[in-house]
Amino acid sequence: MITADSLHKRFGERVAVDDMTFAIAPGETFGLLGPNGAGKTTTISMLVGLLKPDQGSIQIGAESSSVGSPSDAGIRQQIGVAPQALSLYEELTARENLDFFGGLYGLTGSSLKQRRECVLDLSGLSDRQQERVETYSGGMKRRLNIAAALIHEPSILLLDEPTVGVDPQSRNHIFECIQSLSDAGLTIVYTTHYMEEAQRLCDRVAIMDHGRLLALDTVDRLIEAHGRLSVVTAQLKSANGQELPGRLDDDQLRFESDAPLEEIARLSGLGVEFQTLNIVRPDLESVFLSLTGRSLRD
Asked: Between the N and C ends of the chain, which has fewer C-beta atoms within 10 Å?
């Protein structure tokens, strides 16, 4: 559905995107994960045709639809984009915003009404559609931003940091909305610097830093290939004189293992008694740390 080949983008002396190559299949939810400044928004801007790559190429579309560059207006018609900077008119109501954006795509009459009702229902804003956007919470604005991106029924949805500054209720609603769209077969590109969002929503994740693609795979395979060992911390009732892995401080045991449950079972079989147990398994944060030597939030 989307093929990016050797994308480069520079702003003055700063390289924002450096030799990015990836392909996104129809119906896939594809995550771009990285800290602020990693090049995620620049990549999205090139995919949607707002920025032209200095080098490289982008092809949009599947065999069953038109295939071409996002610089082509007909190809852009297949794309919906919800940018990080809200693209809404706050003095208008939600309904008026959606009518305006739908009109830009040529929707009128019953077709516009049907799509408007559909995206309002999906975003959970049907009962607030007659209120001005300036009265909305940050989370409601984010949900309306996504609704506006969907008004023309695109086959590709680009979401750039869609949960920034939202309340927990709206965040969960956005997650449910994205999952529903994914289940319906929409191709979604999702940028975030929150690892838990990428793990929850994405079929595959591309990890970016300083404009470069560091790794690309499913979450499980990324963790298997680049994640660190699980960390076990335990408070012991009795060590029963056994030699223990890791470090023992008074009755507090800490060790790392690639098979923590098996190691705990082995120790129990030797008579070691545990009062409390905690296992922290590797995640995308540990993958990023392994690849870059720093945290996603550094």
From this structure: C
